[in-house]
């Protein structure tokens, strides 16, 4: 696991360098003797060059990251580091993860109300919880299983952590949580429509292509997190290196 995390950190650093338009410089040792490359070697090199990200794509990369960041920020989710995906169709999409500690609800803010002299918490994210979001840039297939993305977390104050349940659709994650809070409160069912309808309307404005969400009970404290895994892209599968960040659960 440690080696996987080290590889992931390197991948995130590489993607960050790509976004900044700075290519890492590799210095190769000078060989004592070289053999003439075979025709197969030359063909393989050309094939790899044709699928590698090119310098003129830098503006598109920045634009894609800005779009993904905008989606998270519109929901009130603080973005993590950008990351890179490697797909079986030889594309390399960018993505961004993020986190929202409770008590809070995307778009609507804090939904804690004083009702009959009692505090009622209807938030999608409650105290001691964090809502994670993940937004890839590009077109992805959301019609099949959405469970390819995961969250690894560690609370540095409690020394607790783990792998959360696989992430699902972000909209479903938010709506299911709010509906659960309302059901637990014992308040009249008419409140479901009053609270859910405006939230649904706003969430429908958010693109769902590959967007993932997960709600994790981390307890209070500073939480280190990494979001990684796979998302379907048509017949292809994209493997995303971790998007990393820190959030403080209240």
Offer a quick outline of the entry.
The protein is an alpha+beta fold.
Describe the structure.
The chain contains 5 helices and 11 strands; from the N terminus they run αααββββββββααβββ. The longest helix is centred in the N-terminal third of the chain and has 18 residues, at 2-19. The strands form 2 sheets. The chain has a 9-stranded antiparallel β-sheet with strand order 7-6-10-11-1-2-5-9-8. A two-stranded antiparallel sheet has the order 3-4. The two termini are 29 Å apart. It has helices at residues 2-19, 39-51, 58-75, 170-185, 190-203, and strands at residues 78-87, 94-101, 112-115, 118-121, 129-136, 149-155, 160-163, 168-169, 212-217, 221-233, 236-249. It has 250 residues and is an alpha+beta fold. Helix 4 packs antiparallel against helix 5 (190-203). It is 32% helix and 32% strand. The radius of gyration is 21 Å and the shape is globular. The model is unreliable at 1-34 and 50-59 (pLDDT under 50).
- Total of DSSP H or I helical runs spanning 4+ residues: 5
Q: Proportion of β residues? A: 25-35%
Largest sheet: 9 strands, antiparallel
Helices and strands, in order, run as HHHEEEEEEEEHHEEE
Secondary-structure map:
Layout: H1 2-19, H2 39-51, H3 58-75, E1 78-87, E2 94-101, E3 112-115, E4 118-121, E5 129-136, E6 149-155, E7 160-163, E8 168-169, H4 170-185, H5 190-203, E9 212-217, E10 221-233, E11 236-249
